[in-house]
Amino acid sequence: xxxxxxxxxxxxxxxxxxxxxxxxxxxxxxxxxxxxxxxxxxxxxxxxxxxxxxxxxxxxxxxxxxxxxxxxxxxxxxxxxxxxxxxxxxxxxxxxxxxxxxxxxxxxxxxxxxxxxxxxxxxxxxxxxxxxxxxxxxxxxxxxxxxxxxxxxxxx
Length: 156
Hints:
The protein has 156 residues and is an alpha/beta fold. It has helices at 2-20, 28-38, 53-63, 66-75, 91-103, 139-155; strands at 24-25, 42-47, 77-82, 111-119, 125-133. It has 6 helices and 5 strands, in the order αβαβααβαββα. α1 packs across α4 (66-75) and α4 (66-75) packs parallel to α6. It is globular, with a radius of gyration of 17 Å.
């Protein structure tokens, strides 16, 4: 019985650590470079991490799960665009996030946009929107079904 309990405990912590190993970019330029190199679309997570209840719930129920971690590593480049009320952010990150919030027309949190970054000859980046969502009830499988529909459109 102790061996089974130990095995379950080890398996649980292994799965939890996988979810925590995800790289969430906060610098959009770096994320675009990775997206271009890997040919994966961007997942832009607009959040109020320290005040938005639905954002916190989306994190807990989906974005910090092993299912999401496995899916994300294979399918997208993760970008967190945070609008905290209490946590410190550099002026550069605040400016970047404000510009992206305006560019994507964000009106509420959480909002998740899937986009492909296209850099033109002048070095300017435009985004081709693939779809957007927010909190989806039903845990990782329900949320990932919505996300996969957007990614299928990219391939079509």
